[in-house]
Design goal:
Radius of gyration: 24 Å
Strand order of the largest sheet: 6-5-7-8
Order of helices and strands: EEHEEHEEHEEEEEEHHHHH
Distance between the termini: 43 Å
């Protein structure tokens, strides 16, 4: 088995027992690789009895899925800490912009937003996310006002100066402290929010609604963390710690989702081959699967070089 930090060619490695520890060239994530996971067999074609390939297909699926899954577990643990200390934000309207779509629709301060286009809303940040990613689509909003439910329709208005559509809401929702049971409830909502933010961002990228400058790699992330630290350090150590936890939640959820994408060289791509094995009743040739993953790895290396170059250019501009 090999435990690696980074990706690409090995810079340094050492062996302890049956585990090889490696430091790779590109500081992009890491991996825990089992013997035979890459599909390589011995020269005589035999597979070692301890090899990953010898394990039951469902055991292999569980092993591969465990990596991305524990990214979500880590995000949930940090979410519990954040919610326990900082509380959360209910989707309660604070202010309405004058002459806005929200004002025209009759939304008032104190209204609680329950659903948007049929999607259940738990946090005010979900409302902000939908607003930020809206491209002029009509929004069917369900409100709760004084215990009475009401449905309104909003057509966001385009702001030529900012180059985006606005609903017309201001503020950051209604913050409240959570009791012990609510800590777990809103911890789940916190992770759910970041999952939604990640996959909606991916959809915007695929649909051409986001540019290359909206994508960052390790250098861009390091720059973002540094800038964020500079912005919050004057508010005290607790603000720095909780802000960094928020970034860890964001990155953990991003890694979990990205690794589950059904693309070669990612865990999701490996899972595709394993589920094919379940359907077919026999595995795809390890050599063929290895070639697919190798080709995917080459593409990802080229993509990472481009992203790192783009990050550097954004810094020096």
């Amino acid at each position: 088995m090999e435990f690696a930090v980074g990706m690409g060619p090995t810079l340094f490695s050492f062996q302890r027992g049956e585990t090889k520890y490696s430091l790779k060239l590109f500081p992009i994530g890491g991996a825990c690789m089992f013997d035979g996971e890459d599909g390589v067999m011995a020269e005589n074609g035999d597979v070692d009895e301890h090899s990953f390939l010898k394990a039951n297909v469902w055991a292999r699926i569980a092993t591969v899925f465990a990596g991305p899954f524990f990214n979500f577990v880590l995000a949930f643990v940090f979410s519990l800490i954040l919610v326990a200390f900082n509380g959360s934000d209910r989707p309660v309207v604070q202010q309405i912009m004058e002459n806005s779509a929200a004002e025209e629709a009759g939304i008032l301060p104190g209204d609680e937003i329950v659903r948007i286009n049929g999607e259940k809303i738990h946090l005010y940040r979900e409302v902000s996310l939908i607003s930020a990613m809206n491209q002029g689509e009509t929004l069917e909003i369900r409100l709760k006002r004084d215990g009475v439910t009401e449905d309104v329709t909003i057509v966001p208005r385009y702001d030529t100066q900012d180059g985006r559509y606005y609903i017309g809401l201001r503020g950051a929702g209604e913050y409240f402290k959570c009791n012990p049971l609510q800590v777990f409830q809103y911890g789940v909502y916190e992770v759910r929010y970041w999952v939604k933010a990640t996959y909606k961002s991916l959809l915007m990228l695929l649909q051409g609604q986001a540019s290359k400058d909206d994508v960052s790699g390790p250098i861009g992330i390091a720059q973002f963390v540094g800038d964020t630290y500079d912005e919050v350090k004057d508010y005290g150590i607790s603000s720095v710690v909780f802000t960094m936890m928020n970034i860890i939640i964001l990155l953990s959820v991003n890694l979990g989702i990205m690794n589950l994408l059904p693309l070669p060289a990612l865990d999701g791509g490996r899972l595709v081959f394993m589920f094919l094995e379940v359907i077919r009743g026999k595995p795809v040739s390890p050599e063929k699967e290895g070639l697919v993953h190798f080709a995917g790895l080459v593409v990802f290396m080229i993509l990472m070089v481009f992203v790192m170059y783009n990050d550097i250019m954004k810094i020096i501009r």
